[in-house]
Amino acid sequence: MRGLQGRVVVVTGGGGGIGSAICETCAEEGASLVITYNSDEAKAWRLLERLPGNTHMVVHAPVDDSSAVQRLAEEVTERYGRLDVLVNNAGITRPVVHHNLDELDDALIDQIFRVNWRGAFAAIRAFKTLLAAGDGGLVINISSVAGQTGIGSNVAYCASKAAMDMMTKSLARALAPQIRVVSVAPGWVEGEYARRVDPAIIEEQRQKTPLRRLAAAQDVADAVLVVATMLQFTTGSIISVDGGRPLN
Q1: CATH number at residue 39
Q2: What is the number of other CB atoms lying within 10 angstroms of the CB of residue 172?
Q3: Active site residue 80
């Protein structure tokens, strides 16, 4: 898959910071984008208006609603008749200090796993047949180094991303050779979430990162593009985009 001209790419949660960067980068390379959203319809449509080309679409498809995800797959099949890349980008979290076990209540735990893990699995399940058609497809799960280090916004979030990475490995084996599955795992990313965190904590993270900055959303988008266009013999891998943060 050298280049994305004529390819179809679904990005769940495409209107957010990382999702927008992925959509813009893929559209600039010639792909048709399917942008899904849960609650912020206006943001998704503003993104679509910025994209080059006129073959894109916006769909309301909360990933924790499996029937909505299945309808999304039917819409993509009807409009494009193919899917080349599924980017499981939709995700949620909320800061809870790791030692505060009471604040991490059952409702929040269930919501995080329902969106971050089950939602990604539901999308893969719904698109499996379409991805396997033709010359094969690619699933890119937007994970986090929190799934490897155990350091993140809360314990459940870290566990959900570890589960996503294990799903990447399991399905890379199970769906080969027709479908490749790869995790792209950012560290801290500059954006809306980072702006809600104490600036002192953000600066500490910068100083502890060997490359002395946080990731930009574009860094994540660039990794997605490389996996989709260049790393044709890569599957089941977890590709970190973290500036070397786990080294400190």
Answers
A1: 3.40.50.720
A2: 19
A3: no
